[in-house]
Amino acid sequence: MERPAVGDGRPLPLGLLRLVGHRPAEKDRVESLGRPKGRAMPTGWIFDIQRFSIHDGPGIRTTVFFKGCPLRCLWCGNPESIRPRPQLSYLREKCLGCGDCAGACPRTAIALGADHKASLDWSRCDHCGRCAVVCDAKALEMVGRNVGVAEVLAVVLRDRDYYAASGGGMTLSGGEPLAQPDFAEALLHAAKAESLHCCVETSGMAEWSVLKRLLGAVDLWLYDYKETDPHLHAKFTGFGNAPILANLHALHRADAKIVLRCPMIPEHNARQQHLDGIAALARQLPKLEGVELLPYYDLWRAKLTRFGLTSPLPESVKPPDRATVQSWHDYLRQRGVRLVASS
């Protein structure tokens, strides 16, 4: 009988199957975990499964990064997550100059430059992936794949001993997990059937009915709060914050465990008015587990060239220094805000 596969398609070794409790005879049980009654098991689009994560909830965790997001945050740390389907990645330093990709591209979006490196016209690329198929050097690759619950769970369960020792588990992130509700629900229920602690990191930009479906399978919500002013929220993310706040309050009324996560971006939302807004919101939600500030970092900019993307966020925006971050923490503590994972 075929064994569950890891992310690259190879079957899990029998020894590891025994370690995580998956015997070959149990394949049907694994594949049925989380399956809606009377329906086929949903699949979903992801772009990464990151093991040994320590910043996506308590303990040591495995984070599953979903493809697709309704928001367009100026500072998005995972720009490759926005597009809901696979997209082309090009690492120029890996290119061997063979030219096979140019011949494979049906839209003539690739040509060899004077340095014998592939040059891409991203405006012509439709992310069909034909160039990546012929690129033996892996300079061109498609990021994003369609996976089933059993495939993801087989990877997640490899580290269950670490979860047990550290209070960790599985986290769904993205992108926006709520943009793929059927797959998120099935994966969460499958993980809960294995007694795993489950977190969902979300912008909250979804219909309330989606969050309500997941309530019983989520142990902790890592809920983003990006901007207090609704007009600035729309400017920074593409949407106002009214539905996000409505869902946050509904989760709180449902006694969900929530950590409010607040990205702090210099020259944008890192200002006193927003800090006051965070403090006011925390007072409205007395059952919050706490507030976590996420200082801006700019490592994501290296991804822009790789994926042929641009960003409207000025390059002059730099990560804050430690003293500035500490001043934010002090300001909120003085206003009675309970901070978590703070420096």
What attributes characterize this protein structure?
single chain; two-stranded antiparallel ribbon; 343 residues; 13 helices; 2 domains; Alpha-Beta Plaits; TIM Barrel; alpha/beta
How would the blueprint of this fold be written?
Elements: H1 14-19, H2 27-32, E1 43-53, E2 61-66, E3 87-90, H3 100-104, E4 110-112, E5 118-120, H4 130-133, E6 140-143, E7 145-148, H5 149-156, H6 160-166, E8 169-173, H7 181-193, E9 197-202, H8 208-214, E10 220-224, H9 230-237, H10 242-253, E11 258-264, H11 272-284, E12 290-295, H12 301-307, H13 322-334
Parallel strand pairs: 2-8, 8-9, 9-10, 10-11, 11-12
Antiparallel strand pairs: 1-2, 1-7, 3-6, 4-5
- SSE ordering: HHEEEHEEHEEHHEHEHEHHEHEHH
- The rounded distance between the terminal residues' Cα atoms is 50 Å
Class by alpha and beta content: alpha/beta
Low-confidence stretches: 1-27
Strand content: 15-25%
Summed up, the helix count is: 13
Radius of gyration: 22 Å
Global mean pLDDT: 90
Helix content: 25-40%
In the CATH hierarchy, the architecture of the largest domain is Alpha-Beta Barrel
CATH topology of the largest domain: TIM Barrel
Question: Largest sheet, if any?
Answer: 8 strands, mixed
Strand order of the largest sheet: 7-1-2-8-9-10-11-12
Task: Indicate the CATH class of the largest domain.
Answer: Alpha Beta
Number of domains: 2
Task: Describe the 3D structure.
This protein has helices spanning 14-19, 27-32, 100-104, 130-133, 149-156, 160-166, 181-193, 208-214, 230-237, 242-253, 272-284, 301-307, 322-334, and strands at residues 43-53, 61-66, 87-90, 110-112, 118-120, 140-143, 145-148, 169-173, 197-202, 220-224, 258-264, 290-295. It is α/β, with parallel strands linked by helices and 343 residues long. The chain has 2 domains: 14-81 and 146-334, TIM Barrel; 87-143, Alpha-Beta Plaits. The strands form 3 sheets. Strands 7-1-2-8-9-10-11-12 form an 8-stranded mixed sheet. β8, α7 and β9 (197-202) form a beta-alpha-beta unit. α5 packs across α7. The chain is globular and about 60 Å long. 37% of the residues are buried.
